[in-house]
Amino acid sequence: GAVVSQHPSWVICKSGTSVKIECRSLDFQATTMFWYRQFPKQSLMLMATSNEGSKATYEQGVEKDKFLINHASLTLSTLTVTSAHPEDSSFYICSGRSPPMDEQFFGPGTRLTVL
Amino acid sequence: QKEVEQNSGPLSVPEGAIASLNCTYSDRGSQSFFWYRQYSGKSPELIMFIYSNGDKEDGRFTAQLNKASQYVSLLIRDSQPSDSATYLCAVRTGTASKLTFGTGTRLQVTL
After folding, report:
1. Can you tell me the distance from the alpha carbon of B16 to that of A78, in angstroms, rounded to the nearest whole number?
2. Chain A touched by B106 (CB under 8 Å)
3. Which listed residue, of A29, B50, B86, B105, carries a Cα 20 to 30 Å from B11's Cα?
């Protein structure tokens, strides 16, 4: 399958700071990228969908001003958690898709801990 | 009713047995069906996808789709301890870009 990378794999930050997570599709052009969050022992929760060059579409209940998503190229999307708080501590996972290819491939995830 | 439903398990099967994982979906317009495996602390990994009614085999895995009954299943033959993970069913409906995931079934393969 296609390869998606994420950086960093884990990050610890202080409350109130901002954290940027990068997601790259390494061997395909991800026209569409998705950002998920997963709390321990819970299911995946889709946060937003982004198409290259367009504004992201956020799921209900996800604050777009807090979770800034940029998808400026076909191989790179970034998620910035602004003014992070301990309740934002979670496992953040991106995935990419290149229509008409139907499969969606996940990155390895970024574990965020906010102190 | 949830859009994609899975039994949370755990489903426990002995090594070498067949594990059968089931998933039902509510939207008859669903067209693409995916199975992902997720190990604890890791991200989901695509195992198989299926579009047409019937069976699709890939190694020890077989996906089965029945659109009339709105269910999709995953069979794992000769189950190994390394198959112990959570299996996520995902569905794409129509031209929608995003996948709708079930909550996953945790599989335990015992020695």
Report:
1. 43
2. no
3. B50
Q: Which helix (H) or strand (E) holds B27?
A: none
Cβ distance of B32 and A102 shorter than 8 Å: yes
- B58: tokens are 């890939």
Cα separations in angstroms, B66 against A23, B33, B50, B54, B56: 35, 11, 11, 7, 12
DSSP E strands in chain B: the ranges are 4-5, 11-14, 19-25, 30-38, 45-50, 54-58, 61-66, 71-76, 85-93, 100-101, 105-110
- The alpha-carbon gap from B50 to the nearest alpha carbon of chain A, in Å, equals 10
Chain A residues with CB under 8 Å of a chain B CB are 1, 32, 34, 43-44, 46, 49, 51, 91, 93, 97, 99, 102-109
Say how far apart CA B58 and CA A105 lie, in whole Å.
Answer: 18
pLDDT of residue B39: 97
- pLDDT (tens digit, 9 = 90+) per residue, B47-94? 999 999 999 999 999 999 999 999 999 999 999 999 999 999 999 987
> Hey, what are B13's tokens?
């099967």
Question: Using CB atoms within 10 A of its CB, is residue A66 exposed (0-12), middle (13-18) or buried (19+)?
Answer: middle
